[in-house]
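Escalated from tier 1: L-homoserine holo job.
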Amino acid sequence: MINIAVLGYGTVGSGVVEVINTNHVSINKRAGDEINIKYVLDLRDFPGDPVQEILVHDYEIIVNDPEVDIVVEVMGGIEPAYTFVKRALEAGKSVCTSNKALVAKHGPELMEIAEKQNINFLFEASCGGGIPIIRALNCSLTADEIDEVTGILNGTTNYMLYKMSTEGSAFDTVLKEAQGMGYAEADPTADVEGYDACRKIAILSSLAYGSFLNYEDIYTEGITKITPEDMAYAKELGMTIKLLATSRKIGEDSFYAMVAPFMIGPGNPLYSVNDVFNGIFVHGNVLGDAMFYGSGAGKLPTASAVVADVVDEAKHLHRNIMTNWTSHPLKLMDLDEVKGRYFVRVKDTTVEKVDEIFGKVQMIVHLEDSSDEFGFVTCEMAQKEYKEKIQNLEGKVLSMIRVKD
Ligand code: HSE
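Tier 2 regenerated the structure:
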């Protein structure tokens, strides 16, 4: 029998208990042993819920119990999660977590402890919910040099942008709707400002490129400035707007990463990732393109990924599953050097003036009922060059959105 302890009986924690109870026959078969939930830790009581029988309020009971083999951390936040996880690993217990904030900040240190102890620290549920992207990067795409990871990694904002695109609604309206549906938190800052996606791309990039990408180094822009007019322009161009978290290897030691809204066309595999779904595009030097798609958030999809980690840890109880992620810092190049195309909305100026500044621009778009403004798409240029040129239109720019092919 393999005993596990679940830290936190919130949405994901109760999902983990539910998944293990519902699928115990196939889970035990796959793990090669019986998975037994010995403890659930929470500060609250749950009268009437069968979990009450195994509920504890004191972490010491778990960390000091030699019968506990695996600790499942689904509390979220940095503390006390970090202290609990570190102590569990030091006590020789494997840990799995859904906590992206913890992994993005302390991942290398916690993996190092697990490696020294010959146990495991796994975090499949921290990125892309139920989509098995971490295991794919870590165990499947091992023949490749990965040179791009680009994802729609936040379900809440993808739902909001999809609604804005299909219904023409304003940001505030769709945010309220997303909160009503239970997708967005009461404080939606981490989602709409891109911070959640930023931590996820930091984790995926660290695994893909084998160094530690500090999320604080990633340029991050959310979706709060996207308007129904921007969406209307995207439609005119046959495109849509998505919040992309992207990182690329440009040269031997040259990487960039960013989170920002992008206009993308139907040729991009992420174009059709709609509603609350997540999608992750990966490019490898021998594989070429691969896409991972599915439920990126929610109680059961996230719990599914957590329990898959429990099964993996049960199968490798005293054997560390190596990762490519080292603590060596991954240095990012200056975004000003990165080349891209830009969609720009301007008012009170002329196409001739825009052509004079940017050279022949690629596309000009007018919306039917706004005669004093138009949009255009630039040719490819370094961000530095774009910034210099756009100064000539100071006071006339309504918005700028990056374009990705
Ligand atoms: N708030 C996150 C999202 C939850 O909307 O994708 C999953 O990490």
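The chain has 14 helices and 17 strands.
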